[in-house]
Write a structure and sequence with these properties.
The chain is mostly helical and 336 residues long. Helix content is 71%, strand content 0%. The protein contains 19 helices and no strands. Helix 7 packs parallel to helix 9, helix 10 packs across helix 12 and helix 12 packs parallel to helix 14. The chain is elongated. It starts with a helix and ends with a helix.
Length: 336
């Protein structure tokens, strides 16, 4: 026991000292990097700096520079870290040649780093597309995020085609989140994605629908057949039902009524009932009333909730939940 105690104590002391040493070295590295940067900003009039390149080709210095860029902003009162990128744009692009020869971790971090340097006019797309094509799962997401941030429509469209064909797949929610960072012509992008929609795999189709929901893009009647088709993938159909709550299209009302009346999939029915809250009609009210006493409480509760909304109650009002609960209690009392 005493041996174990001494061993743990020694380990803790070593860990604390190691952290202190790391902080000390980090401060020294930061001072060293700042001196080189300031000297180059004052004396070097070119677009490239060999001294800064030699530092930033080491991952620990690139990490340090990025942390300073994000957290400190100013090197001195006269210079910002962003000034370094603006002045020595070629240096930051030339780093791609070096980092592409390194391991996946370093390449992935460089792809992320480019996403921070938004003021570069011509980022190293060859590097980003190579990571998209040949990189690992993390690299794909870092490279795609960076391409979205730089917002060049043709490059983004090409990147979407590449990741659509990747065998190891991608994270749907992350790709959607990155796509929303595109600051170019969103309508033009949406039109391209609509035209190519049926050439994409299921996961990319889900990304596109989520993107359209977020930007509220109306694609017309192109998706109605998918919603109606019994063979449409379940996840895609659920996303389409959500889509038509945001994008009003009266041509889907009958399809939604049919789902509520005849589908045996609880999630389909609940989602369709929820979407019907934006399609008021006597037929909608009738269909929903028939579901109030459904044995499945998820369906019953959603029908009550939607009927309250159609009756003029605001679901975002602070009193809505109280009204909703009272209505449920009332219906339960009538049942008993």
């Amino acid at each position: 026991f005493i041996f174990y105690f001494v061993l743990m104590l020694s380990y803790n002391i070593f860990s604390i000292n190691k952290k202190n040493v790391d902080y000390l070295y980090q401060d020294k590295r930061k001072d060293k990097l700042q001196k080189i940067i300031l000297t180059e900003l004052k004396e070097n009039k070119k677009r490239n700096s060999r001294k800064i390149f030699n530092k930033l080709k080491k991952c620990r210095y690139l990490l340090l520079f990025n942390n300073c860029l994000l957290n400190d902003e100013y090197i001195t009162k006269d210079f910002k870290y962003a000034d370094v990128i603006n002045r020595f744009e070629d240096t930051f692009n030339n780093l791609s040649i070096y980092y592409m020869k390194k391991d996946n971790l370093s390449r992935n971090y460089y792809a992320y780093s480019l996403s921070l340097y938004k003021i570069i006019n011509n980022p190293s797309y060859s590097c980003l597309f190579e990571i998209l094509t040949k990189g690992d799962f993390e690299g794909l997401h870092n490279a795609f995020n960076t391409i979205c941030i730089y917002s060049e429509l043709d490059k983004l469209a090409a990147a979407i085609n590449i990741i659509n064909n990747k065998e190891n797949g991608f994270n749907i929610d992350l790709i959607t989140k990155f796509l929303l960072r595109f600051e170019g012509n969103k309508e033009e992008l949406a039109n391209i994605l609509t035209k190519r929609f049926f050439t994409y795999n299921l996961n990319m189709q889900l990304v596109i629908l989520k993107y359209f929901i977020n930007i509220k893009f109306n694609s017309g009647d192109i998706f109605i057949k998918l919603l109606k088709n019994k063979n449409t993938e379940r996840d895609l159909k659920l996303e389409l039902i959500k889509y038509y709550k945001i994008i009003i299209n009266n041509n889907v009302v009958e399809i939604l009524h049919n789902i509520v009346e005849s589908s045996k999939d609880t999630e389909y029915v609940v989602s369709a009932i929820n979407t019907l809250s934006v399609y008021p009609s006597s037929k909608t009210t009738l269909v929903l009333r028939e579901k109030i006493n459904n044995k499945n409480y998820l369906i019953s509760y959603q029908a009550i909730r939607t009927l309250l909304i159609l009756d003029g109650y605001d679901e975002y009002d602070e009193n809505f939940e109280t009204t909703f609960q009272k209505t449920i209690e009332y219906i339960k009392d009538k049942r008993s």
